Each structure stands twice: as C-alpha cells, then as structure tokens.
UniProtKB/TrEMBL annotation:
Protein name, as recorded: Pseudouridine-5'-phosphate glycosidase
Function per UniProt: Catalyzes the reversible cleavage of pseudouridine 5'-phosphate (PsiMP) to ribose 5-phosphate and uracil. Functions biologically in the cleavage direction, as part of a pseudouridine degradation pathway.
UniProt family annotation: Belongs to the pseudouridine-5'-phosphate glycosidase family.
Lineage: Bacteria, Pseudomonadati, Pseudomonadota, Gammaproteobacteria, Lysobacterales
Cofactor: Mn(2+)
Keywords: Glycosidase, Hydrolase, Lyase, Manganese, Metal-binding
Length: 304
C-alpha cells in the first residue's frame, strides 16, 4: 500500500479482521449537499453503517494526507471548509503541496481500493455530460472505474447527464452494471430513466457472488450497482423535468464549464425545487449506504 495514504485505525483493524467496510465520498458532502445539512448527512451515513455492524471509511485529502477513514474533526472539515473538488489527477498535487480536497467518486474509489476496500456507497455516479461530443466533458469516474476493483452503489446517474452515452461508455470500459432488484436503470431522483439494463441482481449475496467471479476471472474493473430510490420517496417526475430545464438554461446563461458544472446544476436544482430535490437526494443516498453495507457484509462472509 502507498505510504502516503493513511487509513484510520478502525478501518485498518476491520480490514485486517475481514470485517465489512464501506467507503464514502466527500465531494457529495462538500459540493453536492448544502450546508449545514451536509454535516448531519456525513455523520448519518457513517451511523447507518455502524448500526449495521459495518465500519465506515469516509475518504478525503486533509493537509496533503489522503485519508481513508476520518475522525469526527475530519468529517466536520469536509462539511464546513471550502475544499477543492478532487478527482484522481488532483491527488498527487494535493499531496505534494500539502493542500486539502474533497474526493469525487473517482478519487474515492481509487484511494479506497488502494486501501483494500471493496465496497463504496455514493449518491450518483458522474458520467458523460450532455453535449460531450462537443465539450469532451466526461467524468473521470468512468475511466477510473475501468481500472479500479471496487463495487460502487449509486442511484444511477443524474438526469442532468447524457444517460445513454454514459451506459455506452460503461459497456466499452467493461464495467458491469447490475440493477438492484430491477432492470430499469434509475436516474437518481427518479426510479426509472427509460433505459433497460442487461442484468439485475436479487440482493446483496448475489452482488458478492458476482464480485467473487469477477476476481476469479482476473477482472480489474469496478462494478456498478444501480439502486433505485423507493417509489414513495422519488421526486415528482413532472416537477423534476421542469426544474431540470431551468437548471440547464441557467448553467448556459452563467457560462459554467468543466468541473464546476455538476456542483452548479445541483445547487440550482436544490433552490429551484424549494429543497424537495435535497430530501430526495438524502433519501437515495441513505438507501445506497444501507445496500452497500449489506453487500460488504455478504462479501466479508464469503470464501475468497
Ligand atoms: N453526483 C451527485 N452528487 C455529487 C456528484 C455526483 O449526485 O456530488 C459528484 C461526485 O463526487 C462525482 C462528481 O464523482 O460529482 C463528478 O463530477 P465530474 O462530472 O466533474 O467528474
Ligand atoms: Mn467534467
């Protein structure tokens, strides 16, 4: 393991004993959820895991140290400080200059896998942005999952992305996408995106079985588990469509580009929905954390 990377004592102990561990990202806390709700959410995600007997490993870079597993002050810092949004390519820069950053799905997956963690929960995966054939804006979440053996539980990708292109890229990169109890690929706030998956799994034990087979075949990619939000918790589809159209128009008018696009759209959507999208976002993230905990538990019981 990299000597730069620091695992918390509880994460190191859990991994040494083969007890279940789930990685959690920090960009969702720093840039995806508004203050002060973000701090409560970060604590709650960890608590959901602990209550299920799973060790949480929230990932971030603090003062140049890539950390897998934060203490309470670290969790406070990712929620309260103005941290930069860090993807994989930013990690050596932060480490080399002593800076801090909140890790995206890509950077979290990379560090967690290096630390020996096999399961990771997030809200939504990054993907191919609309208009990417002109802008080339495709999240490094995808290229990182192509080379990082970790299972990521997400509620699909947000409808702000080009979902068809994102699924095509995952196919090209040979990253399996498993619908959790469904073959309908979810679109974050909504249960269904209109895209069908090739595969669905019945539950956590089946995901662990796929992970084991993946390893036995020598595959080094990640696995995406697409976990739709329960029907009674999803956002009203008509309001969703209306707010999204406004968000795109606003991003266009503001000339937002590059890595600022996702946080801009998310912030706009929370405001324009009067906070409704935020409640849905929190519900789906909690739900993903629970499923990731169940998968990590099955994985820890498996003979590998
Ligand atoms: N999706 C969300 N909330 C988020 C993100 C995605 O629902 O906060 C964050 C994740 O950290 C993801 C990143 O890895 O945005 C992708 O950003 P980009 O498109 O710039 O790669
Ligand atoms: Mn981008």
């Amino acid at each position: 393991m990299s000597t730069l990377l620091k695992r918390s004592d509880e994460v190191a102990a859990a991994l040494a004993d083969r007890r279940p561990v789930v990685a959690l990202e920090s960009t969702i806390i720093s840039h995806g959820l508004p203050r002060p709700r973000n701090h409560g959410a970060a604590i709650e995600f960890e608590t959901i895991l602990r209550d299920a007997g799973v060790t949480p490993a929230t990932v971030a870079v603090l003062d140049g140290v890539p950390r897998v597993g934060l203490d309470a002050d670290g969790v406070r810092r990712i929620a309260e400080e103005e941290l930069s949004k860090a993807s994989v390519r930013d990690l050596p820069v932060l480490a080399g200059t002593g800076a801090s950053g909140a890790t995206t799905v890509a950077a979290t997956a990379h560090l967690a896998a290096k630390a020996g963690i096999r399961v990771f929960a997030t809200g939504g995966l990054g993907g191919v942005h609309r208009g990417a054939s002109e802008t080339f804006d495709e999240s490094a979440d995808l290229s990182t999952l192509a080379v990082t053996p970790i299972t990521v539980v997400s509620a699909g990708v947000k409808s702000v992305l080009d979902i068809a292109a994102t699924l095509e890229r995952l196919e090209t990169l040979s990253v399996p996408v498993l619908g959790y109890g469904t073959r309908a690929f979810p679109s974050f706030w909504l249960r269904e995106s209109g895209f069908e998956l090739d595969w669905s799994v019945a539950g956590a034990a089946e995901v662990a079985a796929v992970m084991r087979a993946h390893d036995q075949l020598g595959h080094r990619q990640g696995i995406v588990v697409a976990n739709p939000i329960p029907a009674e918790q999803q956002w009203d589809p008509a309001e969703h469509d209306r707010v999204l159209a406004e968000a795109f128009a606003a991003a266009d008018a503001a000339g937002v580009r590059g890595k600022a696009v996702t946080p801009f759209l998310l912030g706009f959507i929370v405001d324009a929905s009067g906070g409704r999208s935020l409640e849905v976002n929190l519900d789906l993230a909690r739900n993903n954390v629970r499923v990731a905990g169940a998968i990590a538990t099955e994985w820890s019981r498996m003979d590998v």
